[in-house]
Amino acid sequence: MKEFAAQWAMGYFPRDYTDVFQGLLFGCITVILAFRASDSHTRMRKFILSFLVSYNTAQMISSFLYLLINRYFDFSGTLWDFLIASACLLFPVFPLTSLYKKVLGVKGPAAVFIYTLFFNANCMAMIVAMTTMQRLCITAGLSVFLTWIFRNDIRYIITQESMLRTDRRFTGTAVAFMILIAAEAELPRIVINGGRDTVGNQLAYAVAIVGAALVVMFVIFMKFNFFAIMQYENYIRKNDDDQTTCAKSFTYLLGHSAALIRKNSDAGRSMAIFYTDIENLRDVNVVHGYDAGNDILQRMASCLTEVFPGGIIARASGTHFTGIVPFSGSKNDFEKIISKTERLSIDETLAIKVGVRPLGSMSFSDVNKVDYKYLISMVDQAASAIKYISGPGSGMLCYDEALELNEKIRTHVLANVDRAVRKQWLKVYYQPVVDCITGETAEYEALSRWTDPLYGFLTPDKFIVPLENARMIYKVDLNVLRSFGYELENVEATGRKALPISFNISRTDLEAEVDIFEEIEKIMTDMKIPKDMVHVELTESALNGSASVMSEAVNRFHEMGLEVWMDDFGSGYSSLNVLKDYNFDVIKIDMEFMRKFDHRSKTIVSSICEMAGSLGMRTVAEGVETQEQYEFLKSVGCTYAQGYLFSKPLPAEEIYASPIRCFQADRIH
Ligand code: C2E
Ligand code: MG
Ligand code: MG
């Protein structure tokens, strides 16, 4: 083996010292292109490292390999020889390119591209040159010439966040050219001549011309590619800043977040994505003009940049900013932004809402998974946290596990409401409404429950509000009526007495895509439900919408022959007007009065009962839980009482399993 290595060295160095020279050139050019600004120590280190992984090393390995294979197998002058020689030429290039990538400290394509230029120069010299000196000159000249032509392009992929850094097609093209040129370099030497040295016959000249043409094509093709992509990316970069606020654009945020997350996770810092909303800015625009509104947005943007200098702040749209910032879990920074922005209020009080989606501490593999899709979903989650900030004022909320579950349930409910009706995940529970004089159950309130195969038992707060917001709650409400229709058939079939129900109608039912009145009418006719068996409950907050829509609704239900009950009376701000303007049959007093059962509440309840009585309306007290409350209600003339004192809402099977219950005062404990 020693003897073989010596033989290889004797053959290699006198013939291929051109590669050593090119290796030194490779080191110099690498330092000039990528490390010109570094200190001399770094420059020297990079020079040596580049030299060590240069094409010189690749050539040494390939010639050693080729000689070794030829020692055991004799392929000389055959097609196999050509293939093996080309493969030997290419094989060491790949591990060395990957090492070179580490020397440069950038992603693959930049390293592959520089390597390709030197590889092409070297192979081109092999094809064209007749003597070693010619080879040396052509290799060196062409290496310098090619890197000079591409100097700006190379610097661009090394320093800029470019799509060229991640596009595999770019690397693929460079590698394909390397393969072609390697084949060209071996072709005249082996296939045409069958020898080991450069030859000069006509075919070899033809190959040399094709090789030269190939390199020219490569240069033109790559130059054009770089030109087009750099122009495009520079155009996008120019639009990175939002014209009004000078915050970054949303596209910029998406394009640069991964690098920022990587940098912070290397430094052991956690990050978060936030989303903001300014309420009332529209009023500022209308009253004080758009310049005043823009000024507030600009100041908020600069406040965000000031508080989070290490983050990216972008304007998502209109009044919304979003950003990715270091986040330790403390709310202080966001509270500072909220109070600073609130102080910008002119006449209208600005309310600033901030949703925060913490990204937690990310491992190296997690960071690699950060892409557009991931970022958009994080921004979306930060934005959805805003929806859960209660109250009209400013506030901040973090997207945590509980909120995540809520969101999952919300989207699940929206996607599955039809299925829930079909598969009877939606069930109706009944709660007795008790006559205060006789103590007998006068009727039931029908309340929906959702038993989900994935999330289990869902209470109304989990599905009613999302469905109301999506204007789909009518599906649940009509399901209540339909279910009651079936119960009615069953009860009557067993010869028992059925009681009426009151069922809840949401305001959004009146704005739904279907005509709710027609639908109710249709179900009642189809299922033969008598008009006096169904009462409609409308909540007081439903009146917050258009007054005409509501009074029209009350009238329509009356025309249909249905009683209309006012639910949660006293929970809104327009209670007395409600009594004045709308013609309700029954007033259901909000359960807050029972919850806080003090002297004031008692006085109010007593007055409501009296007033309603004088106006010819009946009253129901909701949330009755104690005997004391029940006694009081009887004493003030409340018509009905409803609450856990009598029964929780129960499924139909349980309600109809026993005879209708009578709740005489002395029997309730
Ligand atoms: P609501 O119409 O005011 O219904 C009364 C709520 O009070 C029910 O809550 C009931 O379980 C609860 N409740 C009854 N007695 C007591 C008591 O003594 N103490 C306490 N703490 N609570 C009592 P639920 O079933 O959770 O319903 C909440 C709200 O959801 C209902 O308020 C109603 O506005 C809405 N809702 C329920 N089912 C439907 C439906 O099918 N359609 C529509 N549109 N809304 C519905
Ligand atoms: Mg109700
Ligand atoms: Mg109520």
Low-confidence blocks of residues: none
| Largest sheet: number of strands, sense, barrel closure | 8 strands, mixed, barrel
Global morphology: elongated
Q: Report the structural category.
A: alpha/beta
Instruction: Supply the number of helical segments.
Output: 26
Rg, alpha carbons: 40 Å
Beta-strand residue fraction: 5-15%
Chart the SSEs and their pairings.
Elements: H1 2-34, H2 40-52, H3 55-72, H4 79-90, H5 93-104, H6 108-128, H7 132-149, H8 151-159, H9 168-192, H10 202-238, E1 248-249, H11 250-266, E2 271-279, H12 281-288, H13 290-307, E3 312-317, E4 320-326, H14 332-342, E5 351-360, H15 364-368, H16 372-387, E6 395-398, H17 401-422, E7 426-435, E8 441-452, E9 456-458, H18 460-469, H19 473-493, E10 501-505, H20 516-526, E11 534-539, H21 547-559, E12 563-569, H22 575-581, E13 586-589, H23 592-595, H24 599-614, E14 618-621, H25 627-635, E15 640-641, E16 650-651, H26 652-657
Parallel strand pairs: 1-3, 5-6, 8-10, 10-11, 11-12, 12-13, 13-14, 14-15
Antiparallel strand pairs: 2-4, 2-5, 3-4, 7-8, 7-15, 7-16, 8-9
Helix pairs in contact: 1-2, 1-3, 1-7, 3-4, 4-9, 5-6, 6-7, 6-9, 6-10, 9-10, 12-13, 13-14, 17-18, 19-20
This protein binds ligand C2E and magnesium ion (MG) (2 copies).
